[in-house]
């Protein structure tokens, strides 16, 4: 395990803090007048999701968390649980809570492959691709005179999620979605 000095604790690194893996959301190394430099950080727990602020001083270090990735296959969602199995081994089914999967879970398509993030052999989250392509299953027709630039309408995707899209998107179109923001990116295929 790598030991990081105070000034190596940078944004997007994952460190062990309070015996939990924490993602560094932001950092700022500075020196206040005649004092020694410090690194003021904002950390987010990858297990509980809580956000804390911590200041690391010159003589302090942090252990870099060892995270593993394992490919898994999404099967279905039932009663607030997302069910997965290991790639190539459908008999090893397991469920993850909606909180653990996150808001991006609404864009998971059945039988799609994602990476599970493991810490000490325990699944603490999943990596959903930033962009996914999904088919529009329900879309209202654009009303003439209501198609000014920037006008949007709500559509339902094949996963059951609903998002706002431009008026020219129709039922049957395949669109690209940014899973982090939950917003429409572009039309991939026209119906």
Structure description:
The protein has one helix at 98-101; strands spanning 3-5, 14-17, 20-30, 38-45, 51-57, 61-64, 68-78, 81-86, 89-97, 113-119, 122-127, 131-139, 152-157, 162-166, 174-178, 183-189. It is mainly beta. It has 3 domains: 3-64, SH3 type barrels, CATH 2.30.30; 68-127, Nucleic acid-binding proteins (OB fold (Dihydrolipoamide Acetyltransferase, E2P)), CATH 2.40.50.140; 131-189, OB fold (Dihydrolipoamide Acetyltransferase, E2P), CATH 2.40.50. The strands form 3 sheets. The chain has a 6-stranded antiparallel β-sheet, with no helix packed on it. The chain has a 5-stranded antiparallel β-sheet with strand order 9-8-7-10-11. The protein has a 5-stranded antiparallel β-sheet with strand order 14-13-12-15-16, with no helix packed on it. A hairpin with a 2-residue loop joins β2 (14-17) and β3.
Task: Report a brief summary of the structure.
The chain is mainly β. The protein contains one helix and 16 strands. The radius of gyration is 21 Å and the shape is flat.
């Amino acid at each position: 395990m790598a030991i990081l000095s105070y000034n190596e604790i940078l944004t997007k690194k994952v460190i062990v803090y309070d015996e939990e893996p924490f993602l560094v959301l932001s950092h700022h190394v500075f020196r206040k007048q005649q004092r020694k430099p410090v690194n003021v950080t904002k950390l987010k727990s990858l297990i509980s999701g809580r956000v804390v602020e911590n200041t690391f001083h010159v003589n302090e270090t942090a252990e870099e968390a060892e995270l593993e990735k394992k490919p898994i296959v999404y099967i279905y969602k039932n009663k607030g649980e997302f069910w997965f199995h290991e790639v190539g081994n459908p008999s090893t089914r397991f469920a993850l809570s909606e909180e653990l999967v996150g808001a991006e879970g609404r864009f998971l398509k059945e039988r799609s492959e994602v990476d599970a993030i493991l810490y000490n052999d325990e699944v603490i989250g999943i990596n959903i691709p930033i962009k996914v392509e999904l088919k529009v299953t329900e879309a209202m027709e654009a009303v003439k005179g209501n198609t000014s630039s920037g006008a949007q309408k709500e559509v339902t995707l094949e996963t059951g999620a609903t998002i706002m899209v431009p008026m020219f998107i129709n039922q049957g179109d395949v669109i690209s979605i940014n899973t982090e923001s939950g917003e429409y990116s572009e039309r991939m295929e026209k119906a």
